[in-house]
């Protein structure tokens, strides 16, 4: 069976990555890539060109907004969804300026994730 | 929440021990019917609508009733009816305290009157209670300039305990005058217009494990990497919501990634407070400065 697409999950929390991965896999045959900081996400994106990225903001080494800017500079069509607990107007504004697909405030629910995955079809 | 405040008052007065109060609140929690269940039972809301409000409640710092009215699932008068059915929680608490022999009914009656008088409250009008006034009675950070910010931070923590682990702790606030030790700590710095150190810490790895289990809705055989991450995520989520609330008041703040440490010793820090959070299953500290 062919894969439905590749999804990169970038979050420094191991449990957040585990829960999100479990939810995405339950929705279909997706290839999952995982990064625990923004720098790793940029490198994984460049070498794998995934179809969708779920990006946290507050992370060590490189934060999610900076990583988003670098990924979008590399690939202006990159589809990135911010998943963060810091849903301030300032972060939302900055994320939208970076051209993200959506901004989901944690804790996320399955319907949101499903709706983002449906944009891959 | 009224029971929580009144219980806290009894604790501060030395009329109940922390253990007795924990037991009484646990009993009340197990007896109290949630507003969503009452709304379904009254035929005001469907199960699906209640679920939608619960999900929304996990994201925004608002009460069930407030969201249900905003979304049009409940009218103001329906909410009022449901709240008056639910507000008898303090009676369950008083009954338990009397049944256990911790206090006599007449002692309870007198203390309740004294409590209500001292706060200009009216027992017949619990719906209109000024929660801020009530919380001031036990979230006391003394004369620190940070009083208002610490108060906002810790009162939000209590709401988040209800929201994310469905278990509100008994709270004791203490200034850390000398040295604070903890076997394990996760901390996160908030910075911007002002800077604040926030942390969860404990000498009981069992209590930390239990808190992580409740937050992650999972079970762990030990306080392993996943359990540690759970506590860290709870702190991160709480701080994220705090930043959103503060940002809505025009103050822009940011936060750094969390840090783990073991064998922690904090020495003579100015404006440092230990907030002891006691649940029936154990105690975890929140240390802020």
Description of the molecule:
The complex is a heterodimer of chains A (121) and B (289). Chain A has a single domain, classed as Rossmann fold, CATH 3.40.50. Helices cover 44% and strands 21% of the residues of chain A. Chain A has helices at residues 14-26, 38-48, 64-74, 89-97, 110-118; strands spanning 5-10, 30-35, 52-55, 80-84, 102-105. In chain A, helix 3 links the parallel strand 3 (52-55) and strand 4. Chain A is globular. In chain B, helix 2 packs across helix 7 and helix 3 (35-41) runs antiparallel to helix 4 (47-57). Chain B is α+β, with helices and mostly antiparallel strands and 289 residues long. Chain B is globular. Chain B has two domains: 2-130; 147-288, CheC-like (Chemotaxis protein chec, 3-Layer(aba) Sandwich). Helices cover 51% and strands 18% of the residues of chain B. Classes of the chains: A alpha/beta (121), B alpha+beta (289). The interface between A and B is medium-sized, with 20 and 26 residues.
> What is the H-and-E element order of chain B?
HHHHHHHHHHEEEHHEEEE
Largest Cβ-defined interface:
A-B, 20 and 26 residues
Kindly report how far apart the N and C termini of chain A lie: 16 Å
Count of helical segments of chain A?
5
Average pLDDT reading of chain B? 84
Q: Any guess at the CATH architecture of the largest domain in chain B?
A: 3-Layer(aba) Sandwich
Quaternary structure classification: heterodimer
Number of strands of chain A: 5
**Treating each run of at least 4 consecutive H or I residues as one helix, how many helices of chain B?**
12
Give the CATH H-level superfamily of chain A. Response regulator
Low-confidence stretches of chain B: 124-130
Overall spatial form of chain B: globular
Question: Which regions of chain A are unreliable across 5 or more consecutive residues at pLDDT < 50?
Answer: none
Range of helix content of chain B = 40-55%
The CATH architecture of chain A can be given as: 3-Layer(aba) Sandwich
Q: Tally the structural domains of chain A.
A: 1
């Amino acid at each position: 069976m062919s894969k439905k697409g590749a999804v990169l999950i970038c979050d420094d929390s191991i449990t957040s990555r585990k829960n999100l991965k479990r939810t995405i896999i339950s929705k279909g045959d997706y290839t999952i890539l995982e990064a625990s900081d923004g720098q790793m996400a940029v490198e994984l994106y460049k070498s794998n060109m995934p179809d969708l990225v779920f990006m946290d903001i507050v992370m060590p080494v490189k934060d999610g907004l900076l990583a988003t800017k670098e990924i979008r500079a590399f690939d202006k069509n990159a589809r990135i969804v911010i998943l963060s607990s810091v849903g301030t107007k300032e972060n939302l504004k900055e994320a939208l300026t970076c051209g993200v697909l959506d901004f989901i405030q944690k804790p996320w629910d399955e319907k949101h994730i499903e709706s983002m995955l449906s944009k891959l079809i | 929440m009224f029971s929580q405040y009144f219980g806290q008052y009894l604790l501060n007065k030395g009329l109940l021990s922390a253990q007795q109060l924990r037991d009484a609140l646990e009993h009340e929690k197990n007896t109290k019917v949630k507003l969503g269940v009452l709304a379904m039972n009254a035929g005001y809301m469907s199960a699906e609508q209640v679920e939608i409000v619960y999900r929304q409640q996990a994201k925004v710092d608002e009460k069930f009733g407030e969201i249900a009215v905003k979304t049009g699932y409940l009218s103001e008068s329906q909410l009022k009816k449901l709240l008056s059915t639910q507000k008898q929680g303090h009676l369950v608490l008083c009954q338990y305290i009397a049944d256990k022999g911790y206090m006599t009914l007449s002692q309870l009656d007198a203390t309740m009157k004294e409590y209500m008088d001292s706060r200009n409250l009216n027992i017949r009008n619990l719906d209109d209670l000024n929660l801020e006034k009530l919380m001031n009675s036990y979230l006391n950070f003394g004369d620190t300039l940070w009083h208002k910010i610490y108060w906002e931070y810790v009162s939000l923590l209590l709401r988040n305990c209800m929201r994310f682990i469905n278990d509100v702790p008994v709270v004791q606030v203490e200034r850390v005058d000398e040295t604070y030790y903890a076997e394990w700590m996760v901390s996160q710095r908030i910075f911007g217009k002002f800077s604040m150190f926030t942390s969860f810490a404990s000498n009981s790895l069992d209590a930390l494990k239990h808190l992580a289990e409740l937050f992650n809705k999972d079970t762990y055989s030990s306080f392993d990497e996943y359990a540690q991450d759970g506590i860290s995520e709870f702190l991160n989520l709480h701080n994220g919501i705090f930043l959103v609330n503060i940002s809505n008041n025009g103050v822009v703040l940011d936060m750094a990634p969390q840090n783990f440490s073991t064998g922690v010793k904090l020495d003579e820090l100015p404006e440092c407070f230990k907030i002891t959070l006691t649940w029936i299953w154990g105690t975890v500290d929140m240390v802020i400065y």
